[in-house]
């Protein structure tokens, strides 16, 4: 894409446990902060992109913020919606249909006790063909994927545990992380088994949180109070809703989303300085490493050994502590982008990856159903 | 059981089949491909499909032991699996034998339930152990 597009502002909402704000208030505060970074205000926003903000989410959020958009998008790609929104906003901004796109999300799933529930009608295919068999969603689907990966490639539970340990080591460097105490592979392996081979510590946190992000033109980004980060490439895809329909349990939609994103950016995995993979479960990261091309299919297990993803590892990944240890407000995708931008600006404090110039945020949603990949670069 | 009104218009033949202990799937009248769950036509070539009774045998493609309560109908631990039947499609199901592993041959069996037709679950092909394949 010839027209350069930038992320000019990012912000987190309050994180962890947020008893004293509504989701809409959280979004409003984060939006104001992200727009301030961009040198803009809510009055400049002409595009609104939200997911998990209720029925007709963009309509509810835009009304709350006093925005009458030219472009609105409430596409539900689950946790991958937010990288997809950067993709959509990039296209819309480059086409001149939007100048200032606001992407936002907030959840209080922890305070409300429990993940958002899926609305299904009695005659849905899900209720007929999946629900009677007692697969706990979403961990059961991820467990089936992990079990197949272990069987097909000899991946081990210890290797999966290494991913959780890497995330925790990063979290120890992030004062905003929800859990920061030391974690060992043995701790992960000894944690409660939920759906084999996945255990409690293979799973992300359940916290409140969210964020906001501003995508805009080069001209508007020139007013930014902080360094604007260029969107170099983006892609998205999805493969299935029912796990029985996933064509190959060892290949995610990330293979396609990354091919488009990396191709557009003109980069290869070796060019990536810092990776923000969606760590809803340890297996989600392992599959992303393979599908994005950081290692060959089936070699994700050996690849993550030896702390490769952790601080001072060869591929710094989940540098905030990720969904496993920092924050997972039901949908993690926006916070992956926030961390990627902060790493590229050099403002990540103790966890800063030295001289990070290219970052990738990779969202995954549903039952490893959806994927979206964004390549970001420091000019 | 035998309630032909179960399911929706497209899945009703499947549930009528389970009521008779038959595992029914769709087959394309043009390319011969099998598909499940049912669609109004063949996803491979757009041609019409007919219902056929599957052989009822297949291979465990993946499996997980569920150790938390999910539904009153199933007491944990129990095994949920994807079974790839010989005709090609995969089904989400329950394995009746917890020792069944990925790659094992299985055969459909039937589990009664109070609020609908029997569910297809899968058991060892020889009824008493793993056949391997």
Task: Report on this structure.
The complex is a heterodimer of chains A (379) and B (133). Chain A is α/β, with parallel strands linked by helices and 379 residues long. In chain A, 34% of the residues lie in helices and 18% in strands. In chain A, the strands form 2 sheets. In chain A, strands 3-2-4-7-1-8-11-10-9 form a 9-stranded mixed sheet, with helices on both faces. In chain A, strands 5-6 form a two-stranded antiparallel ribbon. The longest helix of chain A is centred in the N-terminal third of the chain and has 15 residues. The radius of gyration of chain A is 19 Å and the shape is globular. Chain B has one domain. Chain B has 1 helix and 8 strands; from the N terminus they run αββββββββ. In chain B, the strands form 2 sheets. A 5-stranded antiparallel sheet of chain B has the order 6-5-4-7-8, covered by helices on one side. Chain B has a 3-stranded antiparallel sheet with strand order 2-1-3. In chain B, a hairpin with a 5-residue loop joins strand 1 and strand 2. The longest helix of chain B has 8 residues. The C terminus of chain B is likely disordered. Chains A and B meet through helix 4, helix 5 and strand 5 of A and strand 4, strand 5 and strand 6 of B.
Note the topology.
The complex is a heterodimer of chains A (379) and B (133).
Chain A: E1 5-12, H1 23-37, E2 47-50, H2 57-65, E3 71-73, H3 81-94, E4 100-107, H4 125-130, H5 139-153, H6 157-171, H7 185-190, E5 193-195, E6 198-199, E7 209-217, H8 218-221, E8 229-238, H9 254-265, E9 274-277, H10 282-291, H11 300-304, H12 322-325, H13 333-345, E10 358-365, E11 370-377
Parallel strand pairs in A: 2-3, 2-4, 9-10
Antiparallel strand pairs in A: 1-7, 1-8, 4-7, 5-6, 8-11, 10-11
Helix pairs in contact in A: 6-10, 9-10
Chain B: H1 12-19, E1 24-28, E2 34-35, E3 49-53, E4 57-66, E5 78-85, E6 90-95, E7 105-113, E8 116-124
Antiparallel strand pairs in B: 1-2, 1-3, 4-5, 4-7, 5-6, 7-8
């Amino acid at each position: 894409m010839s027209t350069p597009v930038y992320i000019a502002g990012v912000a987190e909402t309050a994180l962890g446990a947020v008893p004293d704000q509504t989701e809409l208030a959280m979004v409003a505060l984060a939006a104001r902060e992200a727009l301030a970074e961009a040198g803009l205000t809510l009055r400049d926003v002409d595009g609104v992109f939200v997911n998990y903000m209720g029925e007709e989410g963009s309509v509810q959020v835009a009304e709350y913020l006093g925005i009458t958009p030219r472009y609105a998008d409430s596409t539900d790609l689950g946790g991958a919606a937010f990288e997809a929104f950067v993709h959509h906003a990039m296209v819309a901004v480059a086409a001149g249909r939007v100048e200032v796109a606001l992407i936002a999300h907030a959840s209080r799933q922890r305070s409300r006790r429990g993940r958002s529930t899926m609305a299904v009608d009695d005659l849905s295919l899900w209720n007929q063909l999946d629900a009677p068999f007692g697969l706990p969603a979403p961990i059961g689907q991820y467990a089936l994927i992990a079990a197949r990966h272990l069987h097909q490639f000899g991946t081990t539970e210890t290797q999966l545990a290494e991913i959780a340990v890497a995330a925790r080591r990063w979290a120890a460097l992030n004062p905003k992380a929800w859990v920061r105490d030391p974690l060992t592979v043995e701790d992960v392996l000894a944690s409660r088994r939920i759906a084999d081979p996945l255990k409690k510590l293979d799973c992300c946190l359940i916290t409140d949180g969210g964020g906001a992000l501003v995508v805009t033109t080069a001209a508007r980004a020139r007013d930014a109070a902080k360094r604007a980060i260029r969107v170099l490439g983006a892609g998205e895809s999805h493969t299935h809703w029912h796990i029985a329909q996933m064509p190959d349990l060892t290949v995610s939609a990330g293979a396609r989303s990354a091919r488009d994103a990396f191709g557009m950016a003109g980069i290869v995995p070796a060019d990536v300085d810092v990776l923000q993979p969606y760590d809803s479960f340890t297996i989600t990261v392992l599959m992303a490493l393979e599908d994005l091309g950081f290692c060959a299919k089936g070699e994700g297990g050996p690849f993550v050994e030896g702390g490769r993803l952790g601080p001072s590892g060869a591929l710094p990944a989940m540098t905030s502590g990720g969904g496993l240890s920092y924050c997972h407000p039901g949908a993690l995708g926006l916070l992956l982008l926030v961390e990627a931008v902060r790493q590229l600006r050099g403002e990540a404090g103790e966890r800063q990856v030295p001289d990070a110039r290219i970052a990738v945020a990779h969202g995954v949603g549903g039952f490893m159903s959806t994927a979206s990949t964004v390549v970001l670069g420091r000019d | 059981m035998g309630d032909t009104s179960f399911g929706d218009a497209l899945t009703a033949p499947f549930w009528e089949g389970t009521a008779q202990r038959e595992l029914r799937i769709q087959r394309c009248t043009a390319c011969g491909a099998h598909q499940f769950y049912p669609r109004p036509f063949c996803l491979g070539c757009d041609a019409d499909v007919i219902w056929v009774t599957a052989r009822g045998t297949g291979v465990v493609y993946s499996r997980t032991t569920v150790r938390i309560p999910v539904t009153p109908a199933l007491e944990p631990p129990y095994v949920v699996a994807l079974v790839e039947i010989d005709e090609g499609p995969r089904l989400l199901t329950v394995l009746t034998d917890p020792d069944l592993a990925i790659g094992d041959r299985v055969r459909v069996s039937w589990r009664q339930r109070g609020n609908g037709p029997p569910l297809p679950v899968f058991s060892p092909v020889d009824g008493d152990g793993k056949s391997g394949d």
